[in-house]
Design a protein that fits this description.
Layout lengths: L11 H6 L7 E2 L1 H10 L5 E6 L6 H11 L4 E7 L14 H9 L6 E5 L5 H7 L3 E4 L13 H11 L3 E4 L7 H7 L4 H6 L20 H11 L3 E6 L1 E14 L6 E14 H9 L4 E7 L9 E7 L3 E8 L5 E7 L17 E6 L7 H9 L5 E6 L19 E5 H8 L6 H12 L3 E5 L5 E5 L2 E5 L12 H14 L4 H15 L11 H11 L1
Parallel strand pairs: 1-4, 2-3, 2-5, 3-4, 5-6, 7-10, 7-14, 8-12, 10-11, 14-15, 15-16, 16-17
Antiparallel strand pairs: 8-9, 12-13, 17-18, 18-19
């Protein structure tokens, strides 16, 4: 997309001599004139957001500049930046900071997320991208495909840099003032560090992208109870005069979809199709979710919360499910079947176990949640022989009738009891331990700052089940599930499902 013509392009030699920055910033219309004036030169193009310019960018530009005579850098306009975090600097400032680098000859801002329009008018000889883009299949935007096809169509080429890569997202998240500076000036403290740095563990963004590409092909069936979580904020005034109960005024009431409903919403942002077999799931769902209701009745949990402290005061429940149908879909019609049993009577364990025992069938992942309504009575051992289980320490200890077992022993004994090929056990702040076959991996919790923990287990189950179904190693199953859980710690309960852009942003921060 060409913008309106700017002022006439100054003589190229003059621009090359004057490195003050502003004179190096061109319009996209001027890029075409630049190409005409430099017909005998090899032009190299780089493109990106370049928000927080760092050493990784310098190395990138140095390698790019070595491939030709003139280095041009184009920058994505603000409105096309799609990352969860907004840019720190406006497009004008981003252009100026890149133009200030002596190694860069010219800079332009393009009004689209890719470099297609810049390639069309500039027709560079070499288009340079970072090594993280080298596997084109992992680029879900398909921008690299379009750019590569365009430049190779007129005889140019794409070059992927070979140097060390850095993440602007990660740097901006962890960038903090020194402890000494914070002591002198508390206003310098960065309170936005929400996640742990896992760079020492050797994860790569390519591993995360492989998960996303694989997940996007899956047809998934989900069985479980949908729960409507209702939150009532109370302005506590005093104790009642006629009894010793807390009195207060209701100030706000919100409803959120929980249980199998929120799991379906998580999944819909990552997989191809979700068939949800549930109860009372409200409408207005994403297009890739279809629903079979075994009961039309909703399950409602209402929590009354002190609006000043956020502390719960009381919880009331409506958990009756009359007229429940027991028919189940064929497990062999799906790549992945998730059983999310919250212990409220919707699911027939005997019928599900018969489906689990049948062959052929899709990959089966199961959970059975222990909560205040079923403590000790709804355990994962009610479903034996599934391929993957996700449970927490309490559910494992109740199943084994033992407390305080070491994490690795807990995992090993539950694996034998459930007769599964893959298993996750989570333990709150201690993180998660995963076994897939003989491969065992332990990962600390990713969140260092928590708004709420409700919904974290459901997000972990949803995403780790997909990773296990894809037969990814234990370390990736743990990472994927933990990123989902970490995302949920940053909102109030099930305020919204985990999205793919949010998932990728957290991945860039932690790895």
């Amino acid at each position: 997309m060409l913008d309106s013509p700017g002022p006439r392009l100054p003589d190229v030699p003059a621009l090359k001599r004057e490195r003050s920055g502003l004179r190096k910033i061109l319009t996209t219309s001027q890029l075409a004139e630049l190409r005409d004036r430099l017909r005998d030169k090899t032009i190299v193009l780089c493109h990106g957001a370049f928000d927080l310019v760092h050493m990784g960018h310098v190395l990138h530009f140095e390698e790019a500049a070595s491939l030709g005579d003139v280095l041009v850098v184009t920058i994505t306009a603000d409105k096309y930046i799609t990352k969860k975090r907004s840019v720190s600097f406006s497009e004008e400032y981003r252009a100026r900071q890149v133009a200030a680098l002596e190694i860069v000859d010219f800079v332009a801002i393009v009004n689209e997320p890719s470099a297609v329009s810049a390639i069309e008018v500039l027709r560079p000889d070499v288009y340079v991208k970072g090594s993280e883009y080298a596997n084109l299949i992992l680029d879900k935007t398909a921008n690299i495909f379009r750019e590569k096809h365009l430049i190779e169509g007129y005889g140019g080429r794409v070059h992927f840099t070979t140097g060390e890569t850095f993440s602007s997202t990660k740097l901006s998240h962890f960038l903090q003032a020194s402890p000494e500076a914070v002591q002198d000036n508390p206003l310098l403290r960065n309170e936005k560090v929400m996640f742990r740095d896992l760079s020492a563990l050797g994860f790569t963004l390519e591993e995360v992208k492989r998960f996303l590409v694989g997940a996007g092909q899956l047809r998934v069936c989900l069985l479980g109870e949908t729960i409507i979580d209702e939150w009532v904020d109370i302005n506590v005034t005093n104790l009642s005069q006629k009894s010793r109960c807390v009195a207060g005024q209701e100030t706000a009431r919100i409803q959120q979809i929980g249980g199998a409903g929120i799991i379906a919403l998580h999944l819909s942002n990552f997989v191809k199709q979700v068939h949800c077999v549930t109860n009372g799931l409200p409408g207005d769902l994403p297009a890739n979710i279809d629903v079979t209701h075994l009961s039309q009745s909703p399950l409602v949990k209402t929590r009354f919360v002190d609006q000043d402290t956020g502390s719960p005061l009381f919880e009331a429940k409506v958990l009756d499910l009359p007229k429940v149908r027991r028919d189940l879909p064929d497990f062999d019609a799906y790549d992945l079947v998730l059983v999310a049993d919250f212990g409220h009577g919707l699911l027939d364990a005997q019928a599900i176990n018969a489906k689990i025992g049948g062959k052929p069938r899709g990959y089966v992942a199961a959970m059975a949640q222990v909560n205040s309504s079923n403590y000790g009575y709804n355990l994962p051992i009610k479903y034996v022989g599934a391929d993957y289980y996700s449970l927490n320490r309490t559910e494992a200890e109740l199943s084994l009738h033992e407390k305080d077992l070491p994490f690795d022993e807990l995992l090993e004994r539950m694996g034998r009891l459930l007769r599964c090929s893959a298993l996750s056990v989570t333990d709150g702040k201690q993180g998660a331990m995963v076994r897939t076959g003989d491969d065992v991996f332990s990962l600390p919790t990713l969140s260092t700052s928590v708004v709420d923990t409700i919904g974290c287990g459901d997000a972990y189950f949803a995403l780790s089940s997909v990773a296990a179904c894809l037969r990814l190693p234990a370390r990736i199953v743990a990472l994927v599930g933990s990123i989902g859980a970490a995302a949920m710690t940053q909102r109030r309960c099930n305020d919204r499902p985990v999205t793919e852009p949010e998932f990728v942003t957290i991945a860039k921060i932690v790895i």
